[in-house]
């Protein structure tokens, strides 16, 4: 996790274990384009499995998609760091979502392993950025906007959640959250094209 801030404002960059689990289950279930916003598939790619027999008696793929999208929207609304983790073997966090519970049960071990690996990789990347000053661009974006406006930034918080996505971009979730591909910050021009408009809105 990284925090950048000034008087009254704060930008946090981190990843999110429950979201990683959710994205793994989305991709292993082949739910292409599910959720709002419709994020690209994860990288490295997770191969989809056929769950027709597993979920046919509990609504099939349509029910699975609806249940995953409901879960995802709930994760997006929760305060960062308090998101529901999946509790095996019954997954009470997915109560009332039988198709999703079945898929979670079938893939929990692999999803948990993958999410932990991605979290470890992210921690290494974050440490490298700290060492090299890679986060300085966040303060620069705020300060540049303050200079344009001729005033200090308003009080705001911005949470940037980084997840390993194939598409190098960011998605703005109102009012103050971005979901971003883990390596977007490597391309500072592309990073600014997504983050600057959000900073301009908040400052």
Written overview of the protein:
There is one protein chain. The chain is an alpha/beta fold and about 200 residues long. It folds into 2 domains: about 1-15 and about 130-200, Zincin-like, CATH 3.30.2010; about 20-110, no CATH class. It has helices at about 15-30, 50-55, 60-75, 100-130, 135-150, 190-200, and strands spanning about 1-5, 10-15, 155-165, 170-175, 175-180. Strands 1-2-3-5-4 form a 5-stranded mixed β-sheet. The protein is elongated and about 60 Å long. The mean pLDDT is about 95.
State the gist of this model.
The chain has 203 residues and is an alpha/beta fold. The chain has six helices and five strands.
List keywords for this structure.
203 residues; Zincin-like; 48% helix
Largest sheet: 5 strands, mixed
What is Rg? Answer: 18 Å
The global form is elongated
The whole-number mean of residue pLDDT values reads: 94
Q: Which percent bin holds the helix content?
A: 40-55%
Order of strands, main sheet, comes to 1-2-3-5-4
Strand content: 5-15%
- Overall structural domain count: 2
- Which structural class do you get from the secondary structure elements? alpha/beta
Assembly type: single chain
Low-confidence runs: none
In DSSP terms (H or I, runs of 4 or more residues), the helix count works out at 6
SS elements, strand count = 5
Order of helices and strands: EEHHHHHEEEH
What is the topological layout?
Elements: E1 2-6, E2 9-14, H1 17-28, H2 52-55, H3 60-77, H4 98-132, H5 136-149, E3 156-163, E4 170-173, E5 177-181, H6 188-202
Parallel strand pairs: 2-3, 3-5
Antiparallel strand pairs: 1-2, 4-5
């Amino acid at each position: 996790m990284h925090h950048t801030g000034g008087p009254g404002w704060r930008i946090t960059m981190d990843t999110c274990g429950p979201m990683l689990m959710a994205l793994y289950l989305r991709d292993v279930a082949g739910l292409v384009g599910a959720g709002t916003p419709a994020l690209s598939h994860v990288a490295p790619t997770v191969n989809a499995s056929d769950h027709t027999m597993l979920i046919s008696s509990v609504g099939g793929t349509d029910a699975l998609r609806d249940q995953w999208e409901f879960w995802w929207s709930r994760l997006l609304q929760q305060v960062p760091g308090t998101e529901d983790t999946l509790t095996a073997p019954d997954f009470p966090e997915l109560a009332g979502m039988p198709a999703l519970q079945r898929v979670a049960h079938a893939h929990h071990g692999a999803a948990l392993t993958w999410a932990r690996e991605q979290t470890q990789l992210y921690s290494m990347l974050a440490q490298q950025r700290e060492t090299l000053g890679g986060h300085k661009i966040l303060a620069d974006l705020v300060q540049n906007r303050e200079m344009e406006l001729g005033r200090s930034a308003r009080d705001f918080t911005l949470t940037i959640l980084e997840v390993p996505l194939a598409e190098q971009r960011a998605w703005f979730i109102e009012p103050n959250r971005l979901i971003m591909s883990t390596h977007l910050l490597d391309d500072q021009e592309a990073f600014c094209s997504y983050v600057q408009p959000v900073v301009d809105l908040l400052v």
